[in-house]
Amino acid sequence: MLHLKAGFFPVEPYDPVLCDFRISLSNVNGLIYEGELLPGDLERKGRKNLFKDRLARTSPKIRDGIGLTQMSRRLEGFWRFQFKAFAQLDAVTEDEMTLRMETCGDRYELTTQWQKIRNGYKLNLRNLPGRNRGPKLRRESVALAVWR
């Protein structure tokens, strides 16, 4: 399972209901995971935008195994999202990986070392060097990513 908790500063105005949303994870050996939601897949539920597929674990062919995508706007145009996808992640053989997120034509990318943990890899971007903007991150990065 790929589980991400992340954030980004999109070009405003941003409406996730009207945009596509892609996540990919790769390493030097190639693509590990790629998933996409189409415009309209996310539905507005109060202050959140939500896509949920309860069958993603057993039928991962639909929407690339994406079981959950939840997005909400925070202060100063910062958007947080949570993403869960059920997929084979056996191609992870290297600690250095690239995480990409694309939405509304904007692309966010980060290549860095991930920490090996008991049941997978973890990337806590809050601890990355060069983060001098407090709790907010630059447009080219995301906030936290974990996969198990």
Architecture blueprint of SSEs:
Elements (H helix, E strand, L loop, with lengths): L1 E7 L12 E7 L2 E8 L5 E3 L2 E5 L13 E8 L5 E7 L10 E8 L2 E8 L1 E3 L2 E5 L19 E4 L1
Antiparallel strand pairs: 1-7, 1-12, 2-3, 2-8, 4-5, 5-6, 6-7, 8-9, 10-11, 11-12
Q: How would you describe this protein?
A:
With 148 residues, the protein is mostly beta strands. Helices cover 0% and strands 49% of the residues. It contains no helices and 12 strands. The strands form 2 sheets. Strands 4-5-6-7-1-12-11-10 form an 8-stranded antiparallel beta sheet, with no helix packed on it. Strand 4 (43-45) and strand 5 form a beta hairpin. It is globular, with a radius of gyration of 15 Å. Mean pLDDT is 81; it is low at 130-148.
Brief descriptors of the model:
single chain, mainly beta, eight-stranded antiparallel β-sheet, four-stranded antiparallel β-sheet
User: Uncertain runs with pLDDT below 50, 5 residues or more?
Assistant: 130-148
The structural class is mainly beta
How many H/I helices?
A: 0
What is the mean predicted local confidence, pLDDT?
Answer: 81
Biggest sheet overview: 8 strands, antiparallel
Secondary structure: helix percent: under 10%
From the spread of the alpha carbons, the general shape counts as: globular
Give me the oligomer status: single chain
Q: Beta-strand level of the residues, as a percent range?
A: over 45%
How far is it from the N-terminal to the C-terminal residue, by CA? 5 Å
Number of E-type strands: 12
Evaluate the radius of gyration: 15 Å
Write down the secondary-structure element order.
EEEEEEEEEEEE
Largest sheet, order of strands side by side?
4-5-6-7-1-12-11-10
